[in-house]
Amino acid sequence: MSTAHPRQAPGRAIGVTPRAALVDPSRGRPLRIGLLTHSVNPRGGVVHTLELADALRARGHEVTVFAPARGGERLFRATRAQVSLAPLEEGRRPADTGSPMEAPSALHPLVASVGTRIDAMASHLREHPGLTGFDLLHSQDSITANALATLRDEGRIAGFVRTVHHLDEFEQATLAAWQRRGVMAASQLLCVSPLWQQILRDGWGRSAEVVPNGVDTVRFNAMAQHGDEALLRGLGVQPEGPVWLAVGGVEERKNSLRLLEAFALARTQTPEAQLVIAGGASLLDHDDTQRAFSTALRRHGFHQHRAHPEVLVTGPLPDAALPALYRRATALAMPSLREGFGLAALEALACGTPAIVSRIAPFVDHFAPHEVLWADPLDTQDLAHALQRSLRPADTAPVRAAAAAVCRRFSWDRSAALHEAVYRAVLSLAVLQDAPFWPLSHPSPHPSDRHA
Questions:
Q1: Which tens digits make up the pLDDT trace of 376-407?
Q2: How far apart, in whole angstroms, are the C-alpha atoms of residue 388 and residue 380?
């Protein structure tokens, strides 16, 4: 590990290259961009990172994706961007990243895991030979934002961009402190919906630019593919009858318990239906919700050891499985309590499958009344009714008819163009002020905020 540099004085930028400091980026030259994500597994923020990377590459930019990985791990999906993986050292206690931590004997497993990832990313970036050549570094989560905040405090970079997809509530003070630091230390904030723009403004005193998600209509489409049937059979998805699909695993914010209760109600009218809960590769601790879910399965008499169980929980899946599941599903059930955007709803629509979503933001911000099926996420009866509505062609026909237009509205190329506009504005501001990369929307963080 290289020796830390002292923090630089204003007017010198390490994270912004000399050419970025001397050439007005508004001239339209290609940019060299580093995109940072917390995992190699198929979570929403990781998907966003890879799709954005490919769309930026298609626009002519040079992009490198950084992520932490254990030995032998690779990104769950190929990308057109360069990839640089930070090695994770198992069993290593994370170094001090500037936030209060529990004593080693009391270190919570999640704190240790997150801290190790912050440490690994910071160390990897310090040693990356091309670090000073990037025009801009862009974090997609609290873990990589903390790594960049550490490098900024060491004087290795002058600032960074951060996308806030959503924020969590933590019982552990260290995790809460890291989350705060990951928001407050960023030079420029982005978010994927007006909901989070408002939360950041009202609750955090930060302004953010909205850059919505997109959907890949080549990967997600309604045309059955060779191998779909065998893949679904191998997972335990029933070949006939209604299948309601939820994506993201069993989590509190996904409203998994109420969805299960709604499914049990819906089965009184449609006993041949199956609920499939796909994915769930999360770093966070969802044990309490998963135990309650297992208890509810037993209470309803749902059996997990059948060829086609009434409720199928797949766990993490191969990349090819998700489009096949969307195509097989009668509807996507997404009654989330909290989402950054709700990317799965777009993916389902692209596959010709209606989406049932919560009648709350962010969904109400970007879907018209006829573009999805709506449900009150706190009302199990209403959610069960929405599941039943998804079986009726009269209710789903308007959703299917609008799907193509919805997908055109949310393209990754449009998202990449909006990102590029923000990037160039940030870099142009640095040129105009003859200063390092500092924010459009917030002053350089006060020292007391750096480790808040």
A1: 999 999 999 999 999 999 999 999 999 999 99
A2: 12
